[in-house]
Amino acid sequence: MRSRPGFTLQHGIDPNGSGMYDFGKGRSELAPKLPQEATAPASCGTIERHSGGSMGKNY
User: Fold this and answer.
1) Rounded to whole angstroms, how far apart are CA atoms 46 and 37?
2) What is the average per-residue pLDDT within 19-38?
3) Is 20 within 8 Å of 5 (Cβ atoms)?
4) pLDDT at position 1, please?
5) What's the pTM?
6) Do residues 39 and 11 make contact, with C-beta atoms less than 8 angstroms apart?
7) How far lies 16's CA from each of 10, 34, 46, 48, in Å?
8) How many CA atoms lie within 13 A of 28 on its CB side?
9) Half-sphere exposure of residue 31, counting CA atoms within 13 Å on the CB side?
10) What band does 32 get if pLDDT is binned at 50, 70 and 90?
């Protein structure tokens, strides 16, 4: 990551397993027009340097 910028993908949670952000947990306190799921951040894992090549789209 020293020679090129890295990135992380920040996403919301899906506690009811519907596969999409819905209003199952109510409205967001941060942005009431959005579902709470969309504004509850979920990050996991570590950031590591990759030697090259494609890592695919494993997200």
Assistant:
1) 23
2) 90
3) no
4) 53
5) 0.51
6) no
7) 19, 16, 25, 31
8) 16
9) 7
10) very high
Which amino acid is residue 5, in one-letter code?
A: P
Token pair, residue 16, equals 């009811």
Q: Where do we find the tokens 């969309």?
A: 38
Give yes or no for a contact between 39 and 26, defined as CB atoms under 8 angstroms apart.
no
Angle at 2 between CA 49 and CA 58, to 5 degrees: 35
Both structure tokens of 19: 């596969």
**String of DSSP letters for 1-59:** --SS------B---TT--SS--STT-B-SS-TTSBHHHHS-B--S------SS------
CA gap 16, 30 in Å, rounded: 20
